[in-house]
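explain this:
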Amino acid sequence: MKMLEGMFSARYFVFLLAAGGGVMLAVFAVIDGGWTSALTVALALTALGVHDIVQTRHSLLRNDPIVGHVRFILEELRGVVRQYFLEGDDENVPFSRNNRSVVYQRAKEELDKRPFGTKLDVYAPAFEWLNHSIAPKLPAPQPDRVMVGGPDCSCPYSVSRLNILAMNFGALGANAIRALNRGARMGGFAQDTGEGGCTVRHLEDGGDLIWEIGSGCFGCRTPDGRFSPERFAERAALEQIRMVEIKLSQGAKPGHGGVLPGAKVTPEIAAARGGPVDVDCVSPPSHSAFRTPLDLMRFIGELRTLSEGKPVGFKLCIGLEWEFIALGADYPV
């Protein structure tokens, strides 16, 4: 009895209307011989409603057959409606519509200037501007760079303050890696390879590289996944590799490591990383080449020697304060 009461509640009104309409249209079709299109629509809606009621994946569709799909349609349209009708040109983050338009215009070598003033609210709080001056400073003749490498580095590197962050081949495709490296060469800055290793795609356009070595030691590992000094020295000797960066932990996945699914491990990626094809490529939670802060310092010195004096650094997420303090301790030699 409760089931029948539920079936005739307002939630099932559209479903019952479609089913009842289908029956009536079927009768009209038999009598009159027409109504084919309307009958097809009614039967399709009825079949959709039956599917919604018997499926167990979405409670919304079980409770509101047919009508529940409107919610999912509105969710799909939400971003488009906000972007084109509700959001201002400077509202969205991390990039506004105005900023994105400038990127598109410059990529297509079109005019990216807007004459007759600005569309920005120059009186808004925290708005920044450049004041006029009788004697403004001239721009620097050379891009602002920082020399990396102390007295122990025989191959220091003058690195740009702005560079391409770590994105490895596997997470990005070959065309993206090539485009980023070409941009690095044209702009005079460096590209971080990401922990996936320094691949042939990174080397095609001649841009400066920062070789990132994660816990998987991709590109410089033995068959069992441990660090290989010989393979590292061979790759680090490339002139394009200017610096080496040790990635100490998986920032978003502490204690778990990282995984590139086997479906993405193509023969090219497997060759670059030093693993089998079509098998999950795992970055362990920690490095096997060192275990303590003192051991990390020893490993940094080893990499600097193997790379013939290139700068070696590290990046980490700080979870334990004492570990970070220990890295800068004055250890006895």
Remarks:
- The longest strand covers residues 241-247.
- Residues 13-32 form the longest helix (20 residues).
- The chain has twelve helices and eight strands.
- The chain has three domains: 2-66, 72-107, 145-327.
